[in-house]
Amino acid sequence: MRGTALFNLKKTLKRSRESWFGKVKNLFAGHKIDEELWEELEQILIAADVGVSATCQIIERVKERAEREKLKDTGQVYAAIKDEMIAILTECSVSDNDKTEQNGNGPAIVLVVGANGVGKTTAIAKLAHMYKKEGKRVILAAGDTFRAAAIDQLKIWGDRLKIDVVSHQPGADPGAVVYDSVRAATSRGHDVLIIDTAGRLHTKSNLMEELKKINRVITKSGGTIGQSLLVLDATTGQNGLMQAKHFTDAVGVNGIILTKLDGTAKGGIVLAICGELKMPILYLGTGQDLGDLAPFDAKGFVEALFAS
Question: Inter-axis angle of helices 298-305 and 3-12, to 10 degrees?
Fold first, then answer.
């Protein structure tokens, strides 16, 4: 991870580090390795939103390694904990995360889903900015027709980024917007199409059917989804895991953008997502600016989580 990105990530994770993960470091300072230590470690990790499953996984791995390698020094065990966290985060990552290569004559399609209020539209703007900096021609689709504000917000970002936005009137059929956006992206020669979607979880069954319909419309219009990205708000903690399961069932999510890490003291949700869902986190929101979207790096994340 580059120096600037690591610095931003350290700032983003300050609350997590000071509230919980600093306690892990302190726990191993002057504490002998015994059952009491493991119990205290378990309590800290669960309280930090690592989740029961991932916490047990980390502790079992470290215990096995300590026995196998005959680790007696607390500093060695502390280092092993960080190693196992990196391993869990690495195991759920994939080597071909960037599926934004064009599909035949059509654009690469990125479908972005997530509940209302998670920072989805801003995440789309950051993605668009990132692709544009890479020299790709980007177009956006305002597929969240349920909220007029969502359409307006996406148009504002489009104007700011000088990127075309395909939209219909509020209340229009999202499938029609998506169909028109695929056709427009193809005819205008855009490289990447990013599609915004509705996120009203209080009508969950209707929303999930709507997302499935969007999938079918994309296929019928000759497109193929390269990435289905779920935007999760880190401050929702374990509730975010349930959101991930619902959206994955509907659209086969293959990557996560995690936002608002700077707004929570429980950054362990990253380990819970990877440990329990086996789903890769592709990007982290590290601030409010357009450039504050960092590709996820397991080692860099853990280093920032335990930094001095």
Answer: 50
Residue with tokens 């960080």: 82
Distance CA(8)–CA(94), nearest Å, equals: 24
- Measured CA distances, 182 to 54, 108, 171, 192, 215 (Å): 40, 10, 20, 10, 12
Give the span between the Cα atoms of 88 and 280, in whole angstroms.
Answer: 11
Contact criterion met (CB below 8 Å) for 230 and 248: yes
CA atoms within 13 A on the CB side of 247: 28
First to last CA, the chain: 17
pTM above 0.70, yes or no: yes
Chain segment 199-221, per-residue pLDDT in tens: 876 556 688 888 889 989 998 88
**281/89 Cα distance (integer angstroms):** 9
List the one residue out of 126, 99, 45, 161 whose CA is nearest residue 290.
126
